[in-house]
Amino acid sequence: MGSIGPADDTPQTGTEFPFPIVSFQPFLDGTPEGKKEVADRLYDAFHNFGWVYLKDFGISQSEIEEMFRRSKQFHDQPTEWKEKLRLNDPSVSQGYTADGAESSDPHGGRSHKECYEHRKVNELCPAEGELDDWTAWANTFYKKLLDLASHVASALATVLGLDADEFRAQLGQLDGQLRLLHYMPVARKTLESGRNFRINPHTDYGLFTLLFQDSVGGLEVDRFHDGKFVSATPIPGTCVINVADILQRLSNDGLRSTRHRVMAPKLSQKQLDAIGPDGYLPARYSTAFFVHPERNFLVDPIVKEGDKPHYEPCVAGCWRDAITAKNYRLPIPMDTPEQVQAAKCVDLRYMMAANIEKKPRVI
Ligand SMILES: O=C(O)CCC(=O)C(=O)O
Ligand SMILES: [Fe+2]
User: Fold this and answer.
1) Which residues approach ligand 1 with their CB closer than 6 A?
2) Which ligand minimizes its atom distance to the CA of 113?
3) What keywords were assigned to this record (predicted)?
4) 329 pairs with which residues across the strands?
5) What is the ipTM of this complex?
6) Is 151 a member of any domain?
């Protein structure tokens, strides 16, 4: 059984890199011109590419490296230890999910991964002091990401032509979900056979996501929802922002929730030869920070004059609980009219996702 390290050789295919890299520094500097410049570049990126790489966002490369070290430290623990922290309540959305326990594929595809979601609920964290104060590290890093998310939300308000302060006030206290993903080494043959993925094609269901990836690669983006995935190559010192479903609903399709997946990395012939046809692909780590509005925020499309709303309103917290429950195969909460309405919107979302592959949709 062969195995390789991170891709450090010339990739065989997928070298095309169609995504803009935007410096966030002018926004953080806080001048109106700087903020406008970043918002214009984000607008252009989301409309033309659906996906943007951000650099100079106020979190250092060494903090990102420490994050990957902490993720590995967590996932290196025995399964029985991780299972004690199992995610089992959609409204809490915190905890460990083992390989195979989550799937958002409407066609029943299999994602090969494990993850830990952190939302600062201390009972579902490693105990105080455990793993070199792991939970204290997670809380500090979470706070940094939430601060960055707050700036990004203001920038996105400007992208949408809204008043940033008003928009931020309406969204309330942003609610992040820090997800540390580990894609275990997997047989090359498995990923090459049928509906097997590292993570199946999907859109994220919050407002937007900040995504960090290690150097292994394999992330791909379906920019125009037409099934043509392109590689989103890892670039040191960057994170990715992708628009997610709530922002698409809120902007009445002005911004598109980006469809993406994780497949086998694009490898050079030399690397493929080293692995061999029966070999294993290397492990991959990535970290997503899913940004949601406050639970009681009503996601009601902002409609331009002359347009009609494309979506029915639903309460953000109920939307999130319903999708989490569906993906994690937990009962969908249906006790209140808001929960029933959200469940209806979520059903529609899955129907549309299932149809994308039959009939490409371009927004
Ligand atoms: O691992 C990645 O690069 C993507 C992860 C992702 O899309 C997700 O967790 O929703
Ligand atoms: Fe995702």
Assistant:
1) 179, 181, 199, 204, 211, 213, 219, 260, 262, 286, 288
2) 1
3) Iron, Metal-binding, Oxidoreductase
4) none
5) 0.99
6) yes
